Structure formats: structure tokens, C-alpha cells
Amino acid sequence: LERLTFVAWTKLRFPYILKIIDEMGKDTWLRDFELMIMLTLLRLGENAYGVTIARELKIHGGRDASLANTYATLERLEEKGYVSSELGDPTPERGGRAKRYFRVTAKGMVKVRETRRVLSRLSRGVPGLEGETA
Amino acid sequence: MKALRPPVAAVWLLEVFKITEANPALIGDVSEEYFRGRSNAWFWKQTLAALAFSVGKEVYSHKLLAVAAFLSGEAVVWAFATALSRITSSHLFSPILMWWYFHFGNAWLISIPQVLIVHTLSGWTVARFDRDYRMALVPVFAALQSILTVALGFPMIRLHLVNSIDQPRFRPYLAVDVVLVFLCPLAVLLGGYLGRGDNGRSTAKVAQGQ
Fold this sequence. Notes:
The complex is a heterodimer. By secondary structure, chain A is of the alpha+beta class. Helices cover 60% and strands 13% of the residues of chain A. Chain A has helices at 2-24, 32-44, 50-61, 67-80, 106-123; strands spanning 83-91, 97-104. The N and C termini of chain A lie far apart (56 Å). The relative contact order of chain A is 0.11. Chain B is mainly alpha-helical. Chain B has 10 helices and no strands. In chain B, helix 4 crosses helix 8 and helix 5 runs antiparallel to helix 7 (108-129). Classes of the chains: A alpha+beta, B mainly alpha. The A-B interface holds A 14-15, 18, 21, 49-51, 54, 66-69, 71-72, 87, 90-91, 93-95, 97-100 and B 1, 23-33, 35, 45-46, 49-50, 52-54, 57, 63-64, 67.
């Protein structure tokens, strides 16, 4: 009976557990790569698309991220409403495919400021980090 | 700008997994960088990353479906493996197997087809479970089977590996273990291919919610 109860409980709770996992990632703090991408978008302004974002990340972030990883993060940020995108014109050097330009939304800007403020507050007074800015 | 063509197999994979349709901007970016002088290895790296992210996203966004499909596939593996082992150890078949073993001295000609049949059936089941998402479910299930084969067979693989260092007669057994690790996922993929349906929507259309 104990086993049956456990099986029934698991069966009933399983979709609920999956829902919690979904909710966990929805509106939390920006992860390191997400923050890096948001800052890169702000640096690039109007010319922020996959290639330029990956290049900027390599130059300033020292991170050779794959384009797929960059897109996955951008799409996640778009789902959260921090980033918006629009398609440009198709070009021959891209096999006739259009560029997808990204920019930070007002909600995203608030989140970047908030994350930066928290990072600054947390690193203030930490031994070994004095004099450095977040 | 290079006048080369990107690796044909990588482009084929991108098309088979409908990434070209689902994310044309990503493929455009990869093409742009490649024609600016990136290597074939770089193109492959981008292709494999795109495949991993695409499959991962599909499975993550349909977790319940994925778990149910994987459990069904696993149930097929266990049910058919048990049935086949019962059949081969029955009064009817065991004398034939004994005769085979004493004349040819190996059992792999019996065990490898068994594994092939069982895993092909499981791959077919996962693909038929939901044909719309089979392109994501089947490769993940194949990888899962490979991991399970290594995990469950680890004591035997270790034994064969240790014994085959100084006793060459154990090397064929080790070879069969290694073959099975690769054969299981391949059989699952074959089953997934056989279980494809013409009425299934492409992953691109699914991704766009059509």
C-alpha cells in the first residue's frame, strides 16, 4: 500500500513538479551570460545581430560562445521581455537570409540596472575586491 | 570571402533537423562567418551546437511528453529483452544455442541481433509516441540508451577490459561490449527513422506554433 501511495502521489504531483521547474526560470536575476549579452546589445546599439554580438563577446568578454548558445540566450531574454528583435533585409553573403537585429527593451534596461546595483552592493567591502567596479 | 561550400553533411543535418527553417537568422550568421574565412571545423562546431540547443529546447519545452515517451521506449526495451531471453533459454531454443556455442564458440551472433531488434523497436515506439516531436525525442532517447548500456554493463565491461590486458581470449568479448555501446543508439535511430510518419508536422512549424 505504501508503494501504491507513493506511485499515486508521484503520478499526481509530477506535472506540478514540472510546472515549478518552468516557473523557476521565469523571472529571476540575470545569469552571467545573460547580463553579458544585454551589455553587449547596449554597446552595439543599432548593429546588434548574431555575428556582431558573438564578436563583441569574444573581444570584451573573452568568451568564444557558439552562435547557437548566443541565440538560445537571446530567445530566452526575448521570452522574458528584456529584449526585442526585428528582421532586416536578406543579403547574398548570408545565402539570402535576413539578419535578426536585437535591442534591449525598457524592461530589460531596468533589469540590467537592478542587477548591476545588486552586484555593486554585494561586492562593496569584500576583501580583495576593493577599488574594483561591478 | 571564400568560394568554398560548407561541409555537405553538416548542411544536411541542419536541414534534416529543420533548423534552417526554424532559425534562418542563425544559419545566415553561420554562413556569413564561414564565407569570411572560418574553417570547416568551426562550421561543424556551430552545427552541432545548433542541433544540441534545438533538441534540448524541444525536449525541455515538452518535458512531460518526453518523460512519457522515454518511459514507453524503456518499457519496450525491458519487455522485449525479457521475452527474447525467455524464448532463447526455453526448452525449444536452448539446445540449438548450445549446439551453436559448441560448434562456433561465440554468442555474439545471437546477442547482437537481439539487441538490434529490441532497440529498433524501442526507437520506433518513441518516434510513434509523438511524431511531431520525434526529431528531438529519438536522438535524446538514443543518447540515453547509450548511457544506460554503459552504466548497466559497466561491471562486465570493466571485467573484460581488465582481463583482456593479459589474456587475449577476452578481447572479442570487450569488442562486443564496445560494439553494443554504439549499436544501441544506432538501432534506436534506425527505429526512429522507420517510425517516421508523413502526416507529422515539421519541428519548424511546431516551433512557430502552427
